[in-house]
Design brief:
By secondary structure, the protein is of the alpha/beta class. It is built from 13 helices and six strands. The protein has a six-stranded parallel beta sheet with strand order 3-2-4-1-5-6, with helices on both faces.
């Protein structure tokens, strides 16, 4: 099987820096972004999107491919990523996938169950049910028909709640049951590099520092532009991204700015915790400690031993 490199890790762990360094070392790689927020145009500051000049020098596939008011599903990602990976391999290069959206990595590796398309009539019925019974009412019904999904999906997550119930109402089977059916595995030899500060306090400090830097760079103004658009709303997947959601709530008058910033930092830490929990289950991943920055020499040595065919271009 052809090789593929995965660079994984929690937010603020140094993943993009490593991908750029590997490309700068003249390895025959092409970078594919594995990030559910970087796909959206205009979401630059709050996603820590690499600067345009850097992207021009080291192009990333699957960045800036959708408007924030459009939807981009995990199925869309898997289809696009597989197509791009095949093209990269055909050119004699190695796909280098980097990002922190673990659901995308999971879908890419394990495949996706054949789930039904959205049904407008059922969606409308679920909207009416939500208006009548509230999110807790939807969550209670989901717990009755699909307790595994109900345990995984937060009661305040209307999009995922409605999708799980929609799948059940269309098929008569739970989302859990359908997603456990046979899937198509990834036809690549995957080498997983996992980056993270091993000291959780350092990771928390980096998260807070990066968020405050985003605010200084104009993150509130970025969200304000979306808030002022008539076609954007708070329930869009793009606007539910961590950081964007909290500033949207501030603009709506729910919280003052300082509270919104605090909530965003806390939410980012919680996201990093979930990412780390998922990553610890990746038994074939090799971890590198980024407490003191990227251990580049150690990583390059690992790559040369694991993929001796991945030689620096001369």
């Amino acid at each position: 099987m052809p090789p593929a490199l995965f660079i994984m890790g929690p937010t603020a762990a140094g993943k993009t820096d490593l991908a750029i360094r590997l490309a700068a070392e003249e390895y025959p790689v092409e970078i594919i972004s594995v990030d559910s927020a970087l796909v959206y145009r205009g979401m630059d500051i709050g996603t820590a999107k690499p600067p345009s000049a850097l992207l021009a020098q080291y192009p990333h596939h699957l960045i800036d491919i959708r408007d924030p008011c459009d939807h981009y599903s995990v199925g869309d990602f898997r289809r696009d990523a597989l197509t791009i990976m095949a093209d990269i391999t055909a050119r004699g290069k190695v796909p280098l996938l980097v990002g922190g959206t673990m659901l995308y990595f999971k879908a890419l590796q394990q495949g996706l169950a054949d789930l039904p398309a959205a049904d407008p009539d059922i969606r409308q019925r679920l909207d009416n049910e939500m208006m009548e019974k509230g999110l807790l009412g939807l969550h209670k019904r989901l717990a009755a028909v699909d307790p595994v999904s109900a345990k995984r999906i937060h009661p305040n997550d209307p999009q995922r709640l409605q999708r799980a119930l929609e799948v059940y109402d269309i098929t008569g089977q739970s989302l859990t049951s359908l997603t456990q059916q046979t899937k198509t595995a990834l036809p690549y030899l995957v080498i997983k590099i996992i980056l993270s500060p091993f000291d959780r306090a350092i990771l928390h400090q980096r998260i807070a520092k990066r968020y405050h830097a985003m605010m200084a760079d104009g993150f509130l103004q970025e969200v304000t532009r979306f808030y002022q658009r008539s076609d954007c709303h708070a329930e869009l997947p793009a606007m539910r991204s961590v950081g964007y959601r909290q500033l949207w709530q501030h603009l709506r008058g729910d919280f003052d700015l300082e509270t919104s910033v605090d909530k965003a930092i806390i939410a980012t830490r919680q996201m990093a915790k979930r990412q780390l929990t998922w990553l610890r289950a990746q038994q074939d991943g090799v971890w590198f400690n980024t407490n003191d920055g990227l251990p580049l020499t150690e990583i390059l040595t690992f790559i040369s031993h694991t993929l001796p065919e991945l030689k620096i271009k001369t």
